[in-house]
Write a structure and sequence with these properties.
This protein has 244 residues and is α/β, with parallel strands linked by helices. The chain contains five helices and ten strands, in the order αααβαβββββαββββ. It is globular and about 55 Å long. 31% of the residues are buried. The protein binds the ligand Nc1nc2c(c(=O)[nH]1)N(C=O)[C@@H](CNc1ccc(C(=O)N[C@@H](CCC(=O)O)C(=O)O)cc1)CN2 and adenosine-5'-triphosphate. It is an enzyme of class 6 (ligase).
Length: 244
């Protein structure tokens, strides 16, 4: 892809982002959480039914923004109760680098039984009002956090502004997830889908799943990872994989 094609493609993505953000604002106003919560939980009940979820020992999950995005709070309680090893995002201090790690949230299953409090309620929030695991060092300045390494996460839940029926994803536009997945997968994309870690599961509301007549798909570059599955409140899409 040459420079000009890349720039056209980026512009198309920006236009799509604007459209989807406007649609979400209209369909899920910030002051009316109930439809968003109901739809979010429909997505997660589909996730929890999957054998891929049931066999996963470790899960990478995002902590949702306060509005305009699938809400993960109830699902996180379930994942902890199910005894999975849970990893959550921590974006780097340097926002320009758009770097992200996933940090182990070491919480005992019993701690999720309380109806209100969850382990991340006391964490500091980042610029998008998302709680982030604090950086903790020992007396010698060594990191105490468990930072996910390739192979550590079996199933990664991927947020997105939109997805399509090819498993293509439109993110927020900074490349955080693509960079993170490339750190985790390394060259593993040459493996059979079943052996690839992590399994990529995109989640979105039906209004963010783009398959209307005349729509020719979310454009992707070499950096963009294709999801293995996409779940919405009304469908579970398994993306047919060709090699690589
Ligand atoms: N819950 C959650 N956590 C996440 C993500 C996500 O999508 N959801 N991310 C997924 O990558 C990363 C954060 N990515 C983000 C990247 C850019 C913007 C952003 O620039 N928002 C603009 C919106 C307006 C605009 O640019 O047009 C803003 O800050 O106002 C937000 C999140 C890491 N953690
Ligand atoms: N693995 C990578 N290495 C280097 N640069 C990357 C990588 N992945 C994406 N980028 C760059 O990051 C920028 C944003 O990428 P893109 O438009 O795909 O973001 P996005 O996936 O929508 O965002 P996000 O993951 O934050 O939700 C682009 O300039 C892209 O070239």
């Amino acid at each position: 892809m040459n420079k000009e094609e890349l720039s056209t493609l980026r512009q198309r993505k920006q236009v799509l982002r604007k459209e989807v953000r406007a649609r979400i604002k209209e369909t899920f106003p910030a002051n009316e959480a109930s439809k968003l919560l109901r739809d979010s939980n429909l997505v997660f009940s589909r996730l929890f039914d999957l054998p891929q979820y049931q066999s996963a020992k470790s899960i990478g999950f995002f902590l949702s923004m306060p509005s305009g995005e699938i809400q993960t709070r109830d699902a996180i309680r379930q994942i902890v109760q199910d005894g999975k090893v849970l990893f959550v995002p921590r974006v780097g201090l340097d926002f320009e680098k758009c770097d992200m790690d996933m940090v182990g949230a070491l919480v005992p299953p019993s701690s999720a039984s309380d109806q209100d409090e969850l382990f991340y309620d006391c964490w500091p929030k980042n610029k998008w009002n998302i709680p982030e695991p604090p950086i903790e060092n020992d007396a010698h300045g060594n990191a105490l956090s468990l930072i996910a390494q390739p192979g550590d996460i079996d199933l990664l839940l991927v947020p997105g502004l939109a997805f399509d029926s090819n498993g293509h994803r439109l993110g927020q536009g900074k490349g955080y997830y693509d960079r993170f997945i490339s750190k985790m997968r390394g060259t593993a994309d040459e493996n059979e889908p079943g052996e690839r870690k992590p399994l990529l599961v995109g989640v979105c509301l039906d209004e963010q799943f783009l398959d209307y007549d005349g729509f020719d798909g979310i454009p992707v570059t070499d950096h963009d990872y294709i999801m293995d599955m996409v779940i919405t409140p009304t469908k579970t899409l398994v993306v047919a994989m060709t090699s690589g």
